From TrEMBL:
Keywords: Lipid metabolism, Secreted, Signal. GO terms for cellular component: extracellular space. This is Lipase domain-containing protein. Residues 1-23 form the signal peptide. The lineage of its organism: Eukaryota, Metazoa, Chordata, Craniata, Vertebrata. Pfam families: Lipase. It is found in: Secreted.
């Protein structure tokens, strides 16, 4: 918006104020002014509505670990039966982390398969918060709380709608998703059985108060794997402090030789670049 146009709009509205304008002129002014304000309104609307996070819950099938075939929708009990949700089986919520691509990483379907191999009758639900996770890291990290709260609503609803005991609920979150799981657990009305944090994210969470990150308060049992806590420039991708009842640091937690080193390096480089 250049100053000339602002002056013109000002001129136009002052004329409208002084003169007895016809409704057509009024409409014209309104629409010009409206158009002028629209992008600004958008800006404020985005800031005022942090709850714009879209969180989806896809019940994956053992035969199609990669495909989102059936979504369970909070408040719509018929989606539970439509997706063949079993209220007596274990329920896993798999929660991804920060993303640049806006797509699920390949570990998601591998984990789905692994969980079904162990628990054939389980409900393995992949939580999709890609929309809020595909952001500048700092923004995505800030979104973890609101996303966690939405998941908490989902947990409260599914507990009531299906009568499932929350002891059967196991949240598994990777990186930022580990903190999302923490917020989900702490905001749910009743405690979930277990949260597993897979290399919970460090930046913006290290040293924070327990209620602002994954902590032992968030579930009856919180177990954590720290796999990439090797710092660079004082920054560690994975959180270094213990945040669960049990914290495991394979190879000292620093890094895992030969284990997807490229992915880890790419992540650390992008993170270093974005911060
Ligand atoms: C649910 O189970 C029925 C009966 O086994 C099957 O026909 C149907 O395709 C299943 N639905 C989904 C979404 O998997």
């Amino acid at each position: 918006m250049n100053t000339w146009r602002v002056r013109f709009l000002y001129f136009l509205t002052s004329i409208a104020a002084v003169q007895n304008v016809t409704s057509l002129e009024e409409e014209l002014t309104d629409s010009i002014f409206g158009n002028f304000l629209d992008p600004v309104k958008d800006l404020f609307e985005h800031k005022d509505e942090p709850s714009r996070n879209v969180v989806r819950f896809s019940l994956r099938k053992p035969s199609h670990p990669d495909d989102d075939l059936c979504y369970i929708i909070s408040g719509e009990a018929e989606t539970l039966s439509a997706c063949n949700f079993s209220s007596t089986a274990k329920t896993f919520l798999v929660i991804h982390g920060w993303t640049l691509s806006g797509m699920f990483e390949s570990w998601v379907s591998k984990l789905v398969t692994a969980l079904y191999e162990r628990e054939q009758t389980a409900n393995v639900i992949v939580v999709d918060w890609l929309n809020s996770a595909q952001n500048h890291y700092v923004v995505a990290a800030q979104n973890t709380k609101a996303v966690g709260q939405e998941i908490a609503h989902f947990i409260d609803w599914i507990e009531e709608a299906s009568n499932m005991p929350l002891d059967n609920m196991h949240l598994i979150g990777y990186s930022l998703g580990a903190h999302v799981a923490g917020f989900a657990g702490s905001h749910a009305n009743n405690k979930v059985g277990r949260i597993t944090g897979l290399d919970p994210a460090g930046p913006d969470f290290e040293g924070e108060h327990a209620h602002r990150r994954l902590s032992p308060d968030d579930a009856h049992f919180v177990d954590v794997l720290h796999t990439f806590t090797r710092g660079s420039l004082g920054l560690s991708i994975g959180i270094q402090q213990p945040v669960g009842h049990v914290d495991i640091y394979p190879n000292g937690g620093s890094y895992q030789p030969g284990c997807n080193l490229r992915g880890a390096l790419e992540k650390s480089l992008t993170l270093a670049y974005l911060l």
